[in-house]
């Protein structure tokens, strides 16, 4: 599997009005600094690995598009077998439709009239388009019903799932009993079709302590029980399989284990994961906590993002200042992780594990350096990142590189 297939990527991004040809070295002086590079073969490996995992476990995947907002990466994921793409906002839905995504799981409440009217028009115009969204209140159901009726785009049948949340969490019913009431109200709607129950285990816990694992398992069990009770009441549509959905990027293995073998209304439940960060993985939080990084895992992801910057100054023996900062690099789950140092012309290559990024300003990184370490202005510093979800939104375009660090194309982001 090679990243060089031209159809996979967009054109190489322009640099100051010039577009270097594919095959140009990343660090040879043709591209400005800083630069975020996407390793093509790592992405392809990750997409194929997640698709295989889902096939092996009998679940489906709607990767969360907010991670990348990249049409090129959406296409790769769908071609590998993804059910569709998950959205978080009406604006996401609009963007996905502009790039031909035919199945969208909107993992949020849909209450904005403009967005509802757009969804109604898309459903009416394209019989192949499928969208599922959340409901968690009588008021929310009534807003959908009112706006779908007013849209005049008849007949409109919008699929919904009841969201089950947790106390002090974000959206979602706070109990199974409340979820049942919402499901009963949906059943009276001429425009809505109830598919199942959804939730987000990350609202319960984000780590793998024994206590955290137990809490996530208990929450997923409650999601399953709630869906089973709603199904037993005859409230789920019979036109499509009943659905259970959860699964961020850190604990989706616990979700799969909890939902395994679930049946709704006498039929196997459709289990839909929504993991998104796997597509590039990282050198930080996901490398520490991801399911495939746990002992005994038969699967592995590869970090695919690398941030390169040039040393601006060595003002003190143990300090180097590099030209990337908070505008270029994620920092909410840890600073960039130094991996490699290169000469100013891109040659050489030495490990940078003895360097540490200690602080970021908007356009400057403070890097702690051993006093005897040779690192002069103009040199390249390559870093891994932690948390891709806050990396992509900082770049309108990213360079795609092959294993020999030549540029083979680009991707766009649409935040």
Descriptive key words:
415 residues, alpha/beta, Lyase, Ornithine Decarboxylase, Chain A, domain 1, ten-stranded mixed sheet, elongated
Q: Could you characterize the architecture of this molecule?
A:
- This protein folds into two domains: 6-40 and 300-412, Lyase, Ornithine Decarboxylase, Chain A, domain 1 (Beta Barrel); 102-275, TIM Barrel (Alpha-Beta Barrel), CATH 3.20.20.10.
- Helices cover 27% and strands 23% of the residues.
- It contains nine helices and 20 strands.
- Strand 16 and strand 17 form a beta hairpin.
- It is elongated and about 70 Å long.
Task: Provide the fold topology.
Layout: E1 35-39, H1 40-57, E2 60-61, H2 71-79, E3 85-87, H3 90-98, E4 103-109, H4 113-125, E5 130-135, H5 138-151, E6 158-163, H6 176-186, E7 192-198, H7 210-232, E8 243-245, H8 252-259, E9 263-264, E10 267-268, E11 270-273, H9 285-289, E12 305-316, E13 319-322, E14 337-342, E15 350-351, E16 356-360, E17 365-368, E18 380-384, E19 397-401, E20 407-412
Parallel strand pairs: 1-19, 2-11, 3-4, 4-5, 5-6, 6-7, 7-8, 8-11
Antiparallel strand pairs: 1-12, 9-10, 12-13, 12-18, 13-17, 14-15, 14-18, 16-17, 19-20
């Amino acid at each position: 599997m090679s990243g060089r297939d031209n159809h996979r990527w967009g054109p190489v991004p322009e640099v100051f009005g010039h577009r270097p040809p594919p095959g140009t070295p990343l660090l040879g002086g043709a591209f400005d600094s800083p630069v975020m590079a996407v390793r093509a073969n790592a992405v392809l490996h990750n997409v194929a690995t997640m698709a295989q995992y889902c096939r092996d476990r009998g679940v489906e995947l709607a990767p969360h598009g907010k991670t990348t907002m990249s049409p090129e990466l959406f296409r790769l994921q769908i071609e590998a077998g993804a059910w569709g793409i998950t959205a978080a906002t009406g604006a996401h839905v609009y963007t996905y439709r502009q790039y031909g995504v035919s199945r969208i799981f909107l993992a949020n409440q849909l209450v904005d009239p403009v967005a509802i009217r757009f969804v109604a028009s898309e459903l009416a115009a394209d019989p192949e388009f499928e969208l599922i969204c959340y409901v968690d209140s009588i008021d929310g159901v009534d807003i959908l019903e009112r706006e779908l009726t007013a849209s005049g785009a008849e007949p409109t049948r919008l699929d919904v799932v009841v969201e089950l949340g947790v106390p002090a969490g974000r959206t979602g019913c706070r109990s199974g009993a409340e979820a049942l009431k919402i499901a009963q109200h949906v059943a009276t709607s001429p425009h809505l079709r109830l598919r199942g129950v959804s939730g987000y285990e990350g609202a319960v816990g984000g780590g793998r302590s024994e206590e955290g694992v137990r809490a996530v398992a208990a929450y997923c069990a409650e999601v399953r029980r709630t869906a089973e009770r709603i199904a037993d009441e005859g409230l789920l549509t019979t036109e499509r399989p009943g659905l259970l959905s959860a699964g961020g990027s850190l604990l989706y293995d616990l979700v799969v284990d909890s939902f395994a073998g679930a049946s709704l209304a006498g039929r196997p439940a459709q289990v839909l994961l929504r993991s998104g960060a796997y597509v590039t993985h990282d050198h930080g939080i996901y490398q520490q906590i991801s399911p495939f990084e746990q002992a005994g895992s038969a699967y592995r992801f590869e970090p695919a993002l690398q941030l390169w910057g040039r040393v601006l100054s060595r003002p003190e023996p143990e300090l180097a200042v590099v030209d990337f900062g908070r505008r270029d690099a994620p920092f909410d789950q840890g600073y960039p992780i130094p991996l490699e140092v290169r000469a100013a012309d891109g040659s050489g290559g030495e490990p940078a594990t003895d360097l540490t990024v200690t602080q970021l300003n908007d356009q400057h990184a403070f890097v702690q350096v051993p006093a005897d370490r040779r690192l002069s202005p103009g040199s390249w510093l390559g870093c891994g990142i932690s948390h891709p979800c806050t990396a992509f939104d900082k770049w309108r375009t990213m360079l795609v590189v092959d294993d020999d660090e030549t540029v083979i194309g680009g991707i766009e982001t649409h935040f």
